Every structure is written in structure tokens, then in C-alpha cells.
Amino acid sequence: MMEVCPSIVLNSDASENVAYNNPDFPAYIKKGQLSRYPDFRAVSHWHDDLEFILILEGQMFYDVNGQKISLQAGEGIFVNSRCFHYGYSDAHTECLFICILLSPQLLSVNTYFVEKCLNPLIQNIHFPYQPLNPSILWQNSILRDLEMLYKKNVDEIQPFITLEKTVHIFLLLAENMNYFPDYDKDTEDTLALTTMIGYVQKNYPQKIMLKDISSSGNCCKTKCTSLFQKYLNTSPMVYLNRYRLEKSVFLLQNTTMSVTEIAYTCGFSNSSYFCELFHKYYNTTPGKFRNSNR
User: Cα dihedral sign for 269, 275, 277, 282?
Assistant: First the structure.
């Protein structure tokens, strides 16, 4: 779950092309806060990178492939490659966290290592996620590694330290993989949902109807709505609007575009509707948000 930014670009398979701290080194290591997302809810997404969250203050729920996990301060979670995930707070309470994405490319040193050590972890469909509890020794070791990764890379990426910690974290996960026996039964549904999410994220500046989203996943509108509700706990059109709002946040903070220009750029039909939705999810107007978040 990354910070709101304009650089969420999709690969050809609709996975997220992560905006790393250094574009030449595939590691994303930053702090985040839940209030920066519309309605205290990030937009569900997926990527090849392994994702790690460490809760610093507050609490939130994390949804992975439709499974709801509660996270408290000091706890964390690992999300495996290519799993849908997002964090949220229904109570709209603040949560500060460290978010770390580590690409498998960091350890793709040779074919033998990838096939014998890396793929059994990142391609294990029965291991979609792992809650990280500080009271369990090996999980606490990962949490401390995440904390160290952030402290050492806060100003500039340190490749040797990052690689050292990545090896240790991946080793602990590989040695302690949990088994989720039912996680291969909905492959067809998740593939359809992946395609529909990709369609929304590629075409959000355009006019999009429910039938457009469902057609992209080769399913009917009822099936489309059911999949979004099952895996993302929201409707397709609400997902679309939240995604557009996330895009608008960056433009408000980092450009001099007018509110009306931002509304149209992000796919809203008019500025009034944009302002209405923005106030609903952020409890303020776009103009006031811009002034307080410059």
C-alpha cells in the first residue's frame, strides 16, 4: 500500500509498476498515513513485489484477497506477490505505518537460486499473506528488519543493507510458510478481477460505465459487481471514484492546476461532483486540502 502519487503505472498484465525510491534499485521504503487516502481506505491493487507493513501508531484492517486482518501498533503483515491488498479504517482513525516493497529481482541472481529458493515462496498460491506478531520470535525478527530497513534508507537507498535484510526476511518466510489450502479455487475469478482493475486504472480519465468495466473482464454486470464486493468490499463504481480521488490528491499537492482542471483530468464529469465527493471522503474541500497540504 503505497503513498498517493502520480506514478502508479500499469504493466501489460495490469500489475502495478512500482515507483521505487531509486528507479535503478527495486525497493520501495517509506512511511505512510491512512488519512491521506479517501475515506481512510486505500485502493486495492497488486504487484510482483512482496509487500510489508509495520504499524507505528494506531491500528487498521488489512484486506488480502478478500480476507480481513486486524493490525495493531507494533504488528505487521507480509503480502505475497500478486495478491490483491489494501489497508483501511472503517472508524476513520489515523494510522501511521512503514510500507516496504521488495522486488524478487533483488535476489534473482541466477536460475538455480530463483527456481530452488525464490519461486517456491513467491509462487506459492497457498501462502498469500502472513500476519507478523512481535510475540513470535521469527516474526518479530522480520519486524525489526523492517524497522532497520526504514531507518537506514530514509535519506538514501543503501543497497548492501537492503540486500542483507531482504535475504534474511525471505529466508524466514520460506522456512515458516503457512498453508492456506483453499487459495487456488478462485483463479478464474481473480484473473477477471485483475483485468477489470487494470481497465479502471488505465482508463480512469475517460467516461467509464459499469458495462465497460464488466466487459473488460468478460463477465456480466452482476458478476462484475459480485467480484468487486467479494474481494475489494466495494462496488466497481465506488472503486473507480476512489481511484480518481487518489489521483486528484497528488495534483492538488504538486501542481498549480485549478480544481476544475483537476476534476476533468481525473475523469469527473464536472467540478461540482468532484468537490462533493472530495468533501464526502476527506471532510474538506479540494481548495482547503491544497492549502493545508502544500
Answer: positive
